[in-house]
Specification:
It is a single chain. This protein is α+β, with helices and mostly antiparallel strands. Helix content is about 40%, strand content about 30%.
Length: about 120
């Protein structure tokens, strides 16, 4: 993204912090000029990425970087684990993985350490 502004957040992999991540994503999305519907997509993406990352690193700390510009928002969730586990049916991360693949304009899982790289573009 060109001329991006970056917002960084570091949180424990704790379910009660999902709302903080979700609300931060919504506020960052508003900075890019997204519509209300697209902001809701951002909230969902942030929550699902948080669920994915915290389920594979439940005792860790997640680092989340939001880069925002007029084209949209990119997010990188970084965990403290080095490899992506095999996701089994019924695993919360497996469900989150499906949602992220369907809603994001761009979605990658990277290793060493495990990072989720996501992009949601504006619709304006």
């Amino acid at each position: 993204m060109s001329n991006a502004n970056t917002v960084k957040l570091e949180v424990a992999s704790s379910p009660e912090l999902a709302r903080l991540v979700r609300m931060t994503a919504a506020n960052v999305a508003a900075l890019s000029g997204m519509s209300v519907d697209r902001i809701e997509d951002m909230r969902m993406v942030a929550e699902e990425a948080f669920i994915f990352a915290s389920s594979i690193d439940p005792d860790g700390v997640l680092s989340i970087a939001f880069d925002v510009d007029a084209d949209g928002v990119s997010m990188v969730f970084t965990t403290g684990v080095d490899s992506i586990p095999t996701l089994e049916e019924g695993d919360p991360a497996a469900y989150a993985d499906l949602i992220l693949g369907a809603v994001c304009d761009s979605y990658q899982k990277l290793a060493s350490p495990v990072r989720l790289s996501l992009e949601v573009r504006t619709d304006a």
